[in-house]
Amino acid sequence: MGFFLETLFGGLMAGMLYSLIALGFVLIYKASGVFNFAQGAMVLFAALAMARFAEWIPKWLGFDNLIVANLLAFCVAMALMVVLAWVIERLCLSRLVNQEGITLLMATLGISYFLDGLGQTLFGNDIYSINVGMPKEPAMILEGMFEGGLLISKEDLVAALIAAGLVLALALFFQKTTTGRALRAVADDHQAAQSIGIPLNRIWVIVWSVAGFAALVAGIIWGSKLGVQFSLSLVALKALPVVILGGLTSVPGAILGGLIIGVGEKLSEIYLGSFFGGGIEIWFAYVLALGFLLVRPQGLFGEKIIDRV
Amino acid sequence: MLYRENGQFKTSYAADQQIFPIAQDRIAIGLLLLVAFVVMPMAGSEYLFRAVLIPFLILALAALGLNILVGYCGQISLGTGAFMAVGAYAAYNFMVRIDGMPLIAAMLLGGLTATVVGVLFGVPSLRIKGLYLAVATLAAQFFTDWAFLRISWFTNNSTSGSVSVAGLNVFGVPIESPVAKYLFCLTVVCVFALAAKNLTRTATGRQWMAIRDMDVAAAVIGIRPVYAKLTAFAVSSFIVGVAGVLWAFVHLGAWEPAAFSIDRSFQLLFMVIIGGLGSIMGAFFGAAFIVVLPIILDQVPHWFDIPLSTATTSHLVHMIFGALIVFFLIVEPHGLAKLWSIGKQKLRLWPFPH
């Protein structure tokens, strides 16, 4: 029982991080109808920027304070993501308005390749670490209830809390602020939003910046856990089935989908993995999403937008 | 002046329907085939065969297969590498488990196995479209990656996870030297290119294009989407599977699942986009571009004595590919093949623009 709960918690924590990346997909899809394949590359780019600036800034300015260095690096990395959002909107999206979804998907695939190359050229291609002072040692809880207690990684717990906080903040931003309302208007109907004076271009820059922010946070958390390196951009491939499962246009769907996939992955690996020779984590999420697509193509909370013949 | 079709009249349906209706094109293609089959084997260096021509031919074949699915039928696939892997491993198993299995038969059986798997993963396309289908094909990619790595039956219980083939021969002629490999690949590619070109001109090919352009309208005028989509998946996977067999058997010789990773799928999709969606020639242009560009980028710094590390070069290649994808999608969605046909169009009128 204790072991099962441990696995369950581990899955929930991992799922929270998948949700965080999936959130980036959903935000961009909601506001512009672009399925952003480059989200993973953005996570890698943001994490690389964060890791390297946290290292460089103290050197340039000549001080030695971890917190200040991290804060400054976060600001610089965020500024970089905003610039990136603006450049992508200017050079790519604004020229592909009214194209089919597939064309846009392939364009973001191109962007993702470009960002992978650019990030590693600018910031180097070694493994870097991000140290934001996350607690590394695991904690023991509920020792009275189970034999041996439950071993919980504090780092995962902090990460999950941050992710949950971010999701909450984004939900509030979408529901309560004027900008958030404008974003929702654009998501509902591009043309109607434009005709009442909402500037589409600026909205897209904002959405991509917010997605960049989500990518940065996800990058920092994953990066401080596993180190920043190229494989980080592959984490985003895990977030794809999350989005499919939860529904492309639904923020709660992204969260719930992430949790389901995180838990499902861990539990299936432990309890089913041995029947299949192990390592089924790689495809479990995809096969789950595929099965789900056949039964309910719009996902758990998605709008029914799929037309079929 | 040379490229002018004045006076070339068609007097029969056969003449009107031929693949290259302009005499100059026929001569050019004849010359190209002559160079490819006769001159190259005599003049080419071993490096040229191994590093450029053989990969180019095989990847062009795979891109051809993918183009049928993505370019002609409009079903996006990010799992091409998976179907290549299925072809390669199936052919390997036929070779190992059946004594005296000829190479050609193993190749075709590998292709057929890929067809079966391709149709299986094509079934979701009847219910879902566009980016949803992209995710479904990604599932194929991850599943085969895992299966060939973990299920040891597929690799004949090889301990290292990598498998190899040796002593290839066709009708008793050994396929060992680079020239022999090159000629074998060239023959296969020519046969498949001709078949694919003709297939796209049949009723089935037109049905694919109708589905791509507007599936609802196509269904209304009596095209069965099920038939059109599944044949596209079948033909495409067959060609891709054969390309996988060639890549594994002829190009690599010994391989492991990583040879058909998701990167290979993206690479092939890039070839199709850059070369030209919905064009047989585009597959060749795209493959040539993507095979040759990294080699050129590797060489250019040496000419100018600029020291660039291999890592930097590979990042540069990434960036250039990424930028080119976006560039082509914005400026010329039909790729290099369209530029080529624009060039020909201009040449027909040259030097008078009207």
TrEMBL record, chain A:
This is Branched-chain amino acid ABC transporter permease. The chain crosses the membrane at residues 7-28, 34-54, 66-88, 157-174, 203-222, 242-263, 270-295. PANTHER family: ABC TRANSPORTER PERMEASE PROTEIN, BRANCHED-CHAIN AMINO ACID TRANSPORT SYSTEM PERMEASE PROTEIN LIVH. CDD domains: TM_PBP1_LivH_like (cd06582). It is a multi-pass membrane protein. It is found in: Cell membrane. Keywords: Amino-acid transport, Cell membrane, Membrane, Transmembrane, Transmembrane helix, Transport. Belongs to the binding-protein-dependent transport system permease family. LivHM subfamily. The keyword Transport applies. The keyword ATP-binding does not apply.
From TrEMBL, chain B:
The keyword Cell membrane applies. InterPro entries: ABC_transp_permease (IPR001851), LivM-like (IPR043428). Pfam families: BPD_transp_2. It comes from the Bacteria. The chain crosses the membrane at residues 27-43, 49-69, 76-95, 101-123, 130-149, 179-196, 233-254, 266-296, 316-337. It is found in: Cell membrane. The keyword Transcription does not apply. It is a multi-pass membrane protein. Keywords: Cell membrane, Membrane, Transmembrane, Transmembrane helix. CDD domains: TM_PBP1_LivM_like. PANTHER family: ABC TRANSPORTER PERMEASE PROTEIN, HIGH-AFFINITY BRANCHED-CHAIN AMINO ACID TRANSPORT SYSTEM PERMEASE. This is Branched-chain amino acid ABC transporter permease. It comes from Aromatoleum petrolei.
